[in-house]
Amino acid sequence: MDLFSGNPEQMPFAMPRSPGFDAVWAEDRRGYNITVPNGAMFYSECFFEKKVSDRCVEYFQENDSYDWKNVRWRDVEDISKICFKNINWKQDNIRLYGKTVPLPRLTAWYGDEGRNYTYSGITSKPNPWNEGLLYIRRLVEQDCGAQFNSLLLNWYRDGADHLSWHSDDERELGRNPVIASANFGAERDFVIRRKDDKSQKVVFPLRHGTLLLMSGALQHHWEHAVPKRTKISGSRFNLTFRHVA
Ligand SMILES: O=C(O)CCC(=O)C(=O)O
User: In what order do the strands lie in the sheet with 150-156?
Assistant: First the structure.
């Protein structure tokens, strides 16, 4: 696929050089307004100040059992035995080819009471918001002008943890949902591909402090994934803010 990357010195991702694809720098928001056929996105590489991002990585891991800076979380057998100070992490299981297997990442669901959410066949009852998560939500809402009542946190303990192709098109998210993705810790690729032409792909590097917004009809025409990156040893935390009806 022929790609362009605007000013190659500055643009952190490459866009297909085809009709319907564009990325325009928005100085006021310090990010790119992105158009893809049947979808819109916004990408701000350094949306969160470094000190906020650093504190988030600590906040998500603080616990009563391990020094988060030195533990290899992959080796911790039973995450449910650890008392995390701020986030109620859980290891879900899914059915795959007739077998029950652990989801290849840890998750936590937060939100307004009663906003239950089902995805990958798992129904999650939200944990109540806490100060740290509300602080991040405020920053995101102020920038994008949307309101969110629900949040899914994903913890990729290392590059073996990943997320398979899917779109966030559950009915309770509404017709053309705005979804805001806040990213902390290790850099990982976030890949979108068209549902009706899987060769059309765009790769966005999501870094420590990056904000990515997805909107328009994107969820109907595109799917996304976070592929394995076996060389990555560090944790990555992803927060997707949503509005659940
Ligand atoms: O980790 C990410 O960047 C994506 C998360 C996501 O798409 C999801 O949880 O549905």
Answer: 22-26, 31-36, 39-44, 211-215, 179-185, 236-242, 150-156, 106-111
What pLDDT, on a 0 to 100 scale, did the predictor assign at position 146? 96
Residues 6+ apart with CB under 8 A from 196: 221
CA of 2 to the centre of ligand 1 (A): 26
The first and second tokens of residue 151, run together, are: 């949040």
pLDDT in tens, 190-238: 999 999 999 999 999 999 999 999 999 999 999 999 999 999 999 999 9
At 88-98, the pLDDT tens digits run 999 999 888 89
Q: Tokens for 181?
A: 């993705």
Q: Whose CA is nearest to atom 8 of ligand 1?
A: 240
Comparing C-alpha atoms, which of 206, 213, 204, 212 is closest to residue 237? 206
Helix ranges (DSSP H) in the chain = 50-61, 131-144, 218-221
- Output the pTM of the full model: 0.94
- Average the pLDDT over 2-8 and give the result: 54
Say which CATH superfamily domain 8-71+79-216+229-242 falls into: Alpha-ketoglutarate-dependent dioxygenase AlkB-like (2.60.120.590)
44 Cβ below 6 A of ligand 1: no
